[in-house]
Write a structure and sequence with these properties.
Pathway: Phospholipid metabolism; phosphatidylglycerol biosynthesis; phosphatidylglycerol from CDP-diacylglycerol: step 1/2; Lipid metabolism. This is CDP-diacylglycerol--glycerol-3-phosphate 3-phosphatidyltransferase. Strand 1 and strand 2 (37-39) form a beta hairpin. The protein has six helices and two strands, in the order H-E-E-H-H-H-H-H. The longest helix is centred in the C-terminal third of the chain and has 30 residues, at 161-190. It has a single domain (3-190), classed as Four Helix Bundle (Hemerythrin (Met), subunit A) (Up-down Bundle), CATH 1.20.120.1760. By secondary structure, it is mainly alpha-helical.
């Protein structure tokens, strides 16, 4: 197994640890960060999320640079990303830091585009991520990390940076989803 695939599997293994850190009330204390309280377990979970998100960039970089792209990586990398982002967003709804309707739209878009990619793959077409999709991913990661940190450091000035980034990522999520379907509708129309 090559390095990019090992990093992808490491990201998958981080997800249950992340979920446990966000779901169980560990007696590690908390910090008063301006207008809110940040449990230490949420801080640790946020760091783990940031590390996991970073491995996504690293494994993609190494796979392309050293021509280590494999079918296993093509399958596992987007799956690991969707599992990580979905878990984080659902947990943010649970702790009331993200509205459920926003999370439903984001996850629905991910499932719809994944379905389109599967149909395209069955037709022998590879759908590369566009610039809007990349912007969507970056804004999602920034929004999620900020919300996991309970809006630190912006909580000191009462600026809802994480929430604003979540809505910006929602806009890019919708635009990039529509873009995928408009550019690739012929795949759905012409599939057998």
């Amino acid at each position: 197994m090559n390095l990019p695939n090992k990093l992808t599997f490491a990201r998958v293994l981080m997800i249950p640890v992340f979920i446990i850190l966000m779901s169980i009330s560990f007696p590690w204390g908390s910090w008063d960060i301006g207008d809110t309280i940040l449990p230490v377990s949420h801080f640790v979970a946020a760091l783990l999320f940031i590390i996991a998100a970073g491995t996504d960039w690293i494994d993609g970089y190494y796979a392309r640079k050293y021509n280590l792209v494999t079918n296993l990586g093509k399958f596992m990398d987007p799956l690991a990303d969707k599992l990580l982002v979905s878990a984080a967003l659902i947990l943010l709804v649970e702790i009331e830091l993200a509205p459920a309707w926003v999370v439903i739209i984001i996850i629905s878009r991910e499932l719809a585009v994944t379905g389109l990619r599967l149909v395209a793959a069955g037709e022998g077409t590879v759908m590369a991520a566009g610039s809007m999709g990349k912007l969507k991913t970056v804004t999602q990661m920034v929004a999620i990390a900020s919300l996991l940190l309970h809006n630190f450091p912006f909580s000191y000035i009462g600026f809802p940076f994480g929430t604003i980034m979540l809505y910006i990522s929602l806009v890019f999520t919708i635009i990039s989803g529509v873009d995928y379907f408009v550019k690739n509708w012929h795949i759905m129309r012409d599939s057998k």
